[in-house]
Amino acid sequence: MKNHIYTLAVVLIMANMTMAQTQPTLTFSGESSGDHIATQSITLSPGFHTTSFSAKILGDAYLPVAKSDENYIFTRSYQDGMTAASGISENKDVIESITYFDGLGRPMQQIGIKAAPDKEDIITHVEYDGFGRQDKDWLPYHEPSGTLGTYRGNKASATRSYYKANYGADFPTMSSTTANAYSEKDFEPSPLNRVLKQAAPGEAWKMDGSHEIEFGYDTNTTNEVRLFKVTTTFANNTYTPSLVQSGYYTAG
């Protein structure tokens, strides 16, 4: 069963809430009624007649997004006060995003819907290593193809290609199939999965490129780390704390 969870920045509890469907072009013939919005053109053909009809063209009209048949969390943040979702008429009225999840409940793709300057999606690819760890944090990229808001499949190659094409100076000798458009973690070989090294995007900052952030995990020996405790004394209706040494931490 697919679980569809909606998170609203403004919580609206309403019955039978509908939203006008905006299309690029609209054509009406015969008797028509209702409120209609198009982004390009509206044509009233011969024979059109009405008793109650409203139509307008909005260049930045809101187009409802499709959602894939996957587990997802859809988030809508309203940018203006309104009493119903049907009040959304332009893209500037809302900021929307969606995160798709795999069968184990792990994020597998994050999408900033219409987040690019040209109103296309900004996609962040998510993947895991053979032990189920998220060892790479991929950079988001502009996706000009596909249906807005839908799951686009594995986008590792598309992310690499985008950054090689647009930020080639950061990957001078790497190809569009090897560009490290992600930060990367190197885990220790133990069930603790502690991070040993962390690398950043860009050829100069790649894993094993001598510019990683390194982490060390050590234990103390006997009489190496002092143990301090706080004691208090009470005088003149006042507690006075004091920091005193109480030996050393035990080894390990």
UniProtKB/TrEMBL annotation:
It comes from the Bacteria. The keyword Signal applies. The keyword Membrane does not apply. Residues 75-219 form the DUF6443 domain. InterPro entries: DUF6443 (IPR045619). Keywords: Signal. Residues 1-22 form the signal peptide. This is DUF6443 domain-containing protein. It comes from Maribacter polysiphoniae.
